[in-house]
User: Fold these one by one.
Assistant:
Number 1:
Amino acid sequence: MSNSFLKSPQPINEPVKSYGSNTPERAAIKATYDALYSEKIHIAMKIGGAEVNSSETNTMHPPHDHKHSMGTYSLASEQHVEQAIAAALEARTTWAAMPFAARAAVFLKAADLISGPYRYKINAATMIAQSKTAHQAEIDAACEFIDFLRFNVSFAEKIYQDQPVSSSGVWNHVHYRPLEGFIYAVSPFNFTAIAGNLCAAPALMGNTIVWKPSDHQMFSAKIIMDVFEEAGLPKGVINMINGDPEMVTNTVLKNPDFAGIHFTGSTSIFKNIWQKIGNNINLYKTYPRIVGETGGKDYIVAHNTANVEEVATAIVRGAFEFQGQKCSATSRVYLPKSTSKAILDRIVSDINTITLGSPRDLTNFMTAVIHKGAFDRLAAAIDQAKKDSDVEVLVGGTYDDSKGYFIEPTVLVTTNPNYDTMERELFGPIVTVYIYEDEQWSETLKLVDATSEYALTGAILAKDRLVIEEARLALENSAGNFYINDKPSGAVVGQQPFGGARASGTNDKAGSSQNLLRWVSPQLVKETLDPPTDYRYPYMEA
Ligand code: NAD
């Protein structure tokens, strides 16, 4: 037993490998991708540390080659969900009582495993499951995940150190208890790092987890569980199950020990879950913590003092990297009339150089969208735009799902600032541009603020400092992450804590101490060192 106050290692952001030609990482990722691609695996549920199978399974297919099978995964019944909850509650006793340094060591080790022996495996699995390019997989599955794990240890340490003052004769202390019950983590398909962090952040604070990954991330979800297991995570701390999301969620939400949800995904599903929690409120032993990061309709607004190439590059990268499937992807753009032609010409010429295909071919900038539902949604939006008189397809507008779910990078230009695709989250490689009169700058800022229900990310590009300040104030509530002269995506843990407000989420900033604070319930202890022995106060003297 150690009585020392341990100091955790100072975190630094994981360096991003380039995957340039002739680098060792390029050869390694190709070899690992090929090895994984030629295997067929079965993924069991993980309940109380045991592999649990069921007779019901789903198949897994890479989005860029949907006829290819990667294998199967087991689907949970209601009983499995209940077993996972029981396993989490059982593990909580010892996990919550463990010294923080012991819990932190598990996640620091997980970070080092991903940085080292698991790097290419988790990246290649992400390339296959979610159709990410090597670069997009590297900045997500390796670097962001590692950063979440390392930085959160350091943030947690500062939380535990935060103690109240004590006056003479008194010692006050705060105990940051894990929540009483279990945490339900529900993750989206688009970031392996987010999936890992939705489980790891509450677990670091002493909670135990029932995790339901996305059906479209199972192949990389398994690697997350392998890493946690190899890092020494005790059985039952994180239990992974999949199955009908409605059934799994309903089963979890009717359990009296449900203590909180850590969700990332679409707005409508989060609102639906919140409503169910409200309806069940009398069932619970404690008010559940509700943390959800949800959809976005992220904007770039350019002023006529902005550099044309900088605006065009921000749009092309912001809208089309990972096929526009980042919650922070640029999806609506406001350009001043005077420079709009030059900017759009540059975008069109850039897009003409973009190639789509398998992530195995590292020359591709874009690959496929995640599944048939996404493909159909995006194809329908393009078809509708071709029919509508207030919008034109400037470039792109074609799609093909014969081998994979490929949608060409598409730019729509509309004369209607409230056109459907200026307001609705499409989550794909389609960006809509509205051209405003230069002298309507201030009115345009009001339009940007009022157009969408979301408030996740946004960017202003301008040289003139007065207009930058005007935009910052006018758009204060329109984005949780606001960018000046940059694209509105690419947040780095420890540098740009991430999250949005309005319909974009509870803005609890993943990768920050604000998020970790949601997973503790502080208990204040006041200890009186020399307790009084007479009930009378001095003012009562005769
Ligand atoms: P999704 O909402 O379809 O799925 C998210 C999770 O919810 C999955 O695990 C899914 O199985 C589960 N789910 C589906 N139906 C459910 C139901 N009825 N009850 C309970 N759970 C259910 O989202 P997705 O397509 O995986 O991810 C894309 C969405 O996530 C976009 O809206 C995007 O903006 C958002 N997102 C937001 C952030 C952020 O930080 N704000 C980050 C990543 C993704």
Number 2:
Amino acid sequence: MRNDAQLAFYTCTPPCHSALMKTQVTIIGGGPSGLLLSQLLHVRGIDSVVLERKTKDYVLGRIRAGVLERGLLDLMREAGVADRMEAEGYPHDGTLISYGDEMFRVDFTKHTGHAVMVYGQTEVTRDLYAAREAAGGAIIYNVEDVVICDADSDTPYVTYTVDGKTARINCDFVAGCDGFHGVSRNTIPDNVRREYEKIYPFGWLGILSETPPVNHELIYANSERGFALCSMRNENLSRYYIQCSLSDSPSDWTDTAFWEELRRRIPADQAKKLVTGPSIEKSIAPLRSFVTEPMRWGRLFLCGDAAHIVPPTGAKGLNTAASDVHYLYNGLRDYYENDSTAGIDSYSAKALARVWKAERFSWWFSSLMHRYPDQSAFDHRIQVAELEFLRSNDAAQQAMAENYVGLPY
Ligand code: APR
Ligand code: PHB
């Protein structure tokens, strides 16, 4: 195995007074992308250091979607972090889609031979932290002022401050896993980077409540009052969303108002069995589609939300981050194990080809299920026609199921 950078830690002699480390891959961001990459590399004997701006508790306090594609399940198995997910996750063979008084089911297993796993992203992240800690993995929290230097050379390095002290990591590669608001993407020069964005004119108001889910499978609802989603984490923890105005704030919505609105947006037989209770989390997320190209600049590679965002309809955020990690991990293995740059050279093109398909699906499913403020009567009839086509056409259901369970890597 190629091993041109062994992890070492020492302190510079004055006058710089700064800590200097050396590793193979510096990973910016300790969200699910960064942690999964770090753990997969570790399994193959490749060293990394993760730099995280926040604390572990902060990262674990974020509530995100909870539907995992089979590609991510395989990566978790390969990373050795799948045990709790296999024991506590819920395989789902299909999903329900409602519009008006109609409801139909898309059967994933029948159409694709695969299911998805309902297991919260927060739990995936928790399992990854546990594995990195058990392996003595280097994660540095509360870092500030991260700067990626010389990424277009063969000797990149990263500087940062922690507790007011400056430090530097020399490395072979930098993985930018620092989410939409990180520094990695903007390290790629403006004249190289192209960005594509679509903002949706509504948000999702989500609540988590310690109540049994209304249904054992997810329900995506297009109602005349707007979109709603009934999801879950376990048999006594439900996650529900309703489309809301971007000018709303969570405090505008009492729990009672939320439950009443949700009831109005889902089929009457479901509304009747909805069990309500106090919310334990309530937040509003805007909806955005965003892609940056390329996803590689020199020895810097972007992964996950740092490079792309999808609206949450279809739960592709974490799953698309995972496919990036898959391509980058295999490219880095190719480099260290086979002395080949083929995998890292094709990283951006391969990752983006799949990213755009996930973008298309998330945009399509969002467009199908939401009410738009400027929607005409014609636009609405087209939505209904498309929903009726999906309800009655096997090929359309198969296309939806293939995308939902995840296109192959
Ligand atoms: N320096 C170090 N860490 C940073 C910096 C920075 N300058 N900027 C951001 N970070 C950290 C954030 O604190 C966060 O913990 O990077 C991490 C990025 O994590 P995520 O935003 O969760 O992104 P990612 O790991 O790509 O996960 C993708 O998670 O965010 C959801 O919707 C997203 O489901 C998708 C998945
Ligand atoms: C969730 O459970 O939070 C969830 C599920 C499916 C989605 C989005 C969010 O499409």
